[in-house]
């Protein structure tokens, strides 16, 4: 039995390109603008997710906005490649994240 193709949200293509090219993405998620560096795309219980290193958010919060974020791709309202911001990562990156249960594509940890 063949698994039917999944319908992918619009933001998926932008995130996949950014992941492959190691580029930053400016995204609007839950009414906040975020600067993300995608590392892993996959699914959690059938829903598309991205694991990204977030470098900034607007409006800023009372805590450090940098760090790992697991976001539902179908809740990203706008996503564009950010040419003027370098892609970033952190030493604790691992594809063994519990944020997804099926990996579609990922940057291998160093």
Which tags fit this structure?
globular; single chain; 110 residues; SH3 type barrels; mainly beta; six-stranded antiparallel sheet; 45% strand
Outline the structure in words:
With 110 residues, this protein is mainly beta. It has one domain: SH3 type barrels (Roll), CATH 2.30.30. 11% of the residues lie in helices and 45% in strands. It contains one helix and six strands. Strands 1, 2, 3, 4, 5 and 6 form a six-stranded antiparallel beta sheet that branches. The longest helix has 12 residues. The protein is globular. The mean pLDDT is 89.
| CATH architecture label | Roll
How much of the residues is beta strand, in percent? 35-45%
What is the oligomeric state here? single chain
Number of strands: 6
End-to-end C-alpha gap: 36 Å
Number of structurally distinct domains: 1
**Name of the level-1 CATH class:** Mainly Beta
Mean pLDDT: 89
Rounded to an integer in angstroms, the radius of gyration calculated over CA atoms is: 13 Å
Structural class computed from helices and strand pairing: mainly beta
Give the low-confidence spans. Answer: none
Fill in the CATH topology: SH3 type barrels
Shape: globular
What is the helix fraction of residues, given as a range? 10-25%
> Helical element count?
1
Can you give me a brief rundown of this structure?
The protein is mainly beta. 11% of the residues lie in helices and 45% in strands.
């Amino acid at each position: 039995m063949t698994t039917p193709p999944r319908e992918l949200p619009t933001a998926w293509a932008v995130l996949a390109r950014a992941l492959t090219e190691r580029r930053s993405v400016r995204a609007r998620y839950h009414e906040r603008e975020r600067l993300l560096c995608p590392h892993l795309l996959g699914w959690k219980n059938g829903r598309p997710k991205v694991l990204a290193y977030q470098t900034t958010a607007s409006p800023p919060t009372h805590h450090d906005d940098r760090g790992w974020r697991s976001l539902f791709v179908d809740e990203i309202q706008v996503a564009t490649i950010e040419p003027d911001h370098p892609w970033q990562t952190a030493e604790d990156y691992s594809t063994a994240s519990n944020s997804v249960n099926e990996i579609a594509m990922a940057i291998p940890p160093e």
